[in-house]
């Protein structure tokens, strides 16, 4: 519906053929006179001609596009992750396209199908609800390279960026145990993705090793990974009479802060709160949040690097990259109140 | 570089011509036998054939894509704004593509040029640094419909979604004056976009009306619109010996909270803090932030509706939509300490 300046307009203005214009603009103009070359270049600038990508596209069979599917671009984790992807893609002259699918399987299928239709070159999928079925039915038959992130699918044989979630859970437990906590509760979503499952297992295994009682049936509060999720489950967390809470991510922990604050509970004096991710906001809440750091920007950059390498060589060996996590101790955790 | 299932593969499998397949899949298969029609549809599903968008594209001359340019997708304001756009676009079967250009003019030109190359159907531009020159040199000559948001360009004659920033500034001043504040400071970025200029003018005009002294040269602290910007200028804000601060947006106010907290300053007892936007986070900080609400999700939805209408009718009359703002009083503002 646009009436863009076309290559034909440009050719007419220059008094040469479309082929001539095309070759000059594609850097293959040596066989034309300097004068003709200059005329075409000057007119391109004067007329603000932008080559039509779709036409070029059909020849290249590539849209130079990377699709990125995240559950929630409103979570600072994912906006930072995308910033890393954007940076690397730009250097490689690829365009990253992000979709926020709210963990809704229908939305995810819709966006994935749409991207495949548009000949996307590769996909970075970070989502808890993209099923193996979706991957098998949409991506594999169309031979679209993809990278699963934040899921650590064990049954998938593709490239993998592995964040050590098990170790992250262990570090959280170790920190709280060291402070002297004996009665802990974990706040995690009901349907665990593989990475969250590992995070939780690292945590519970470490408690077990230390001889601390933890009953997965009663000591886990189920809440969505959002600020609202944390806020709405503050009552339930308090009912567990724990001295420390391990939250599945920082957003959730920050929502829990609000609920605890409304109940007049002091953090960390009356309850220690621990997050996960180290989003930039973690330093801006009061008290500053103790958390497990994932190098988020770097994760985005590395994801983009892996998918670009794969696009350039579909047959190369499987890429496996391990990413470590670390404890960031701030002000939201302390010795349990019974010890004070 | 992908080896997608093509229409040719499908035609071969069905034992019919490519044209036959194309017509059947495009709902124009009445002239073929029911059997042929069914065979093609069944094979399409079995082979997971997805029509090639780029090929279709050349015929339609439309990519069914809306480009969205924002300064910072990590600011919850813009992620919520984009969520609204995504919702409306999906209903209209358009794909919104978002870019976060960090208020960097080079990045913005890069992404805009890239989108024009890809035959984007329309653009929603919310950015402080896209210049009139960029618009005149890239968008206008290519006849790409665009909507400027969050800028309220007075010289632009295009469609406009007008948020009443002047009134927003007035409401902020009115609220602080009513509480009894006489000594106020404003925190705003150095280079003001048109909307921020109005916001600030509404604020200062209202102070003037009330006979309150405010010197724009000394009573404005310049800081970027980010949490870090607010945090790093806490010292300067405190040096002004004001009893209330009006921040240009909530992110900045939340950063300022941290700086004030580190100085041991109590909000609102020692200093009232007022934000702008009402991002969801405003309710999650302690104390909850008093702010001016923009209906962010609705702004995104309306932006998408306006641009889609324009795409469907390039010659329709100019669209002007006014969006009101309102005061949301929470816990970060109170009577000035000298009054207590």
Automatic annotation (TrEMBL), chains A, B:
<dbReference type="InterPro" id="IPR000843">
    <property type="entry name" value="HTH_LacI"/>
</dbReference>
<keyword id="KW-0678">Repressor</keyword>
<protein>
    <submittedName>
        <fullName>LacI family DNA-binding transcriptional regulator</fullName>
    </submittedName>
</protein>
<dbReference type="Pfam" id="PF13377">
    <property type="entry name" value="Peripla_BP_3"/>
</dbReference>
<dbReference type="GO" id="GO:0003677">
    <property type="term" value="F:DNA binding"/>
</dbReference>
<feature type="domain" description="HTH lacI-type">
    <location>
        <begin position="5"/>
        <end position="60"/>
    </location>
</feature>
<keyword id="KW-0805">Transcription regulation</keyword>
<dbReference type="InterPro" id="IPR010982">
    <property type="entry name" value="Lambda_DNA-bd_dom_sf"/>
</dbReference>
<dbReference type="Pfam" id="PF00356">
    <property type="entry name" value="LacI"/>
</dbReference>
<keyword id="KW-0804">Transcription</keyword>
<dbReference type="InterPro" id="IPR001387">
    <property type="entry name" value="Cro/C1-type_HTH"/>
</dbReference>
<dbReference type="InterPro" id="IPR028082">
    <property type="entry name" value="Peripla_BP_I"/>
</dbReference>
<feature type="domain" description="HTH cro/C1-type">
    <location>
        <begin position="4"/>
        <end position="28"/>
    </location>
</feature>
<keyword id="KW-0238">DNA-binding</keyword>
<dbReference type="InterPro" id="IPR046335">
    <property type="entry name" value="LacI/GalR-like_sensor"/>
</dbReference>
């Amino acid at each position: 519906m646009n009436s863009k300046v076309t290559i034909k307009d440009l050719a007419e203005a220059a008094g040469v053929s479309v082929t001539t214009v095309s070759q000059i603009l594609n850097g293959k103009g040596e066989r034309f006179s300097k004068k003709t070359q200059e005329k075409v270049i000057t007119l391109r600038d004067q007329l603000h001609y932008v080559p039509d990508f779709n036409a070029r596209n059909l020849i290249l069979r590539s849209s130079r596009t990377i699709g990125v599917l995240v559950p929630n671009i409103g979570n600072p984790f994912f906006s930072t992750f995308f910033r890393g992807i954007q940076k690397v893609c730009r250097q490689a002259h690829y365009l990253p396209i992000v979709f926020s699918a709210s963990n809704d399987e229908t939305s995810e299928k819709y966006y994935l199908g749409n991207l495949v239709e548009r000949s996307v070159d590769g996909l970075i999928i970070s989502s808890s609800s993209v099923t193996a079925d979706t991957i098998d039915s949409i991506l594999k038959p169309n031979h679209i390279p993809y990278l699963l992130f934040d899921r650590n699918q064990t049954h998938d044989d593709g490239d993998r960026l592995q964040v050590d979630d098990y170790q992250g859970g262990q570090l959280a437990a170790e920190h709280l145990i060291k402070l002297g906590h004996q009665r802990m509760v974990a706040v995690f979503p009901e349907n665990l993705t593989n990475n969250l499952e590992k995070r939780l297992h690292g945590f519970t295994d470490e408690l077990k090793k230390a001889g601390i009682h933890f009953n997965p049936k009663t000591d886990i509060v189920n809440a969505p990974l959002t600020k609202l999720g944390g806020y709405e489950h503050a009552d339930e967390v308090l009912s567990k009479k724990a001295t420390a809470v391990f939250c599945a991510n920082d957003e959730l922990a920050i929502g829990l802060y609000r609920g605890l604050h409304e109940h007049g509970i002091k953090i960390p004096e009356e309850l220690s709160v621990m997050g996960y991710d180290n989003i930039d906001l973690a330093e801006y809440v009061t008290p500053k949040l103790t958390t497990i750091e994932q190098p988020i920007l770097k994760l985005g950059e590395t994801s983009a690097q892996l998918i670009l390498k794969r696009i350039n060589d579909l047959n190369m060996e499987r890429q496996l990259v391990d990413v470590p996590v670390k404890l960031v101790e701030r002000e939201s955790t302390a010795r349990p109140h019974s010890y004070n």
